[in-house]
Amino acid sequence: MALVSPIKLSDEEKLDVLQRLDRFRQWHFLDEKRYCLVCGKIITGREIQVIGGIRGNGPLRIICPTEHCNAMPMEWVRPTDEVLIKIALVEAERHRLDLINRAGRAMRSISKVNTIVRTRPKPPLG
Ligand SMILES: [Zn+2]
């Protein structure tokens, strides 16, 4: 069970909350996108979770919708071309590492087979 459950707001209220609580970047509409520096995901204003406030959990806060992320507005940047290229590069790097890992595993299983073949005792000579 989550300690705080997100507050459901109408689109208008949500946008209003985003505009008030995000002092770093202006929100013009709910479907605006942000890149979360903490979890590395693209999030939209609509997805951002509003917690606290009304239900008596202290001041109203907005957090990243990604599970276990909870990043704050300060960590959300506009997905500019520069940011999108960075994301693409990180993805490509991850993919490359994945391939290397897979190749590594394949190589290990091949060398294991070779070792077995090599260490097989020689048949006794006549
Ligand atoms: Zn996040």
User: For the CA atoms, what is the radius of gyration?
Assistant: 25 Å
Class by SSE composition: alpha+beta
Report the mean per-residue pLDDT as an integer.
Answer: 87
Amino-to-carboxy terminus distance: 74 Å
Strand order of the largest sheet: 2-1-5
Bound molecules: zinc ion
Q: Approximately what portion of the residues adopt beta-strand conformation?
A: 5-15%
Low-confidence stretches: none
Description:
- With 126 residues, the chain is of the alpha+beta class.
- It is built from 2 helices and 5 strands; from the N terminus they run αβββββα.
- It folds into 2 domains: 11-79, no CATH class; 80-118.
- The strands form 2 sheets. The chain has a 3-stranded antiparallel sheet with strand order 2-1-5, with no helix packed on it. Strands 3-4 form a two-stranded antiparallel ribbon.
- Bound molecules: zinc ion (ZN).
- The site of zinc ion (ZN) has 8 residues, from loops.
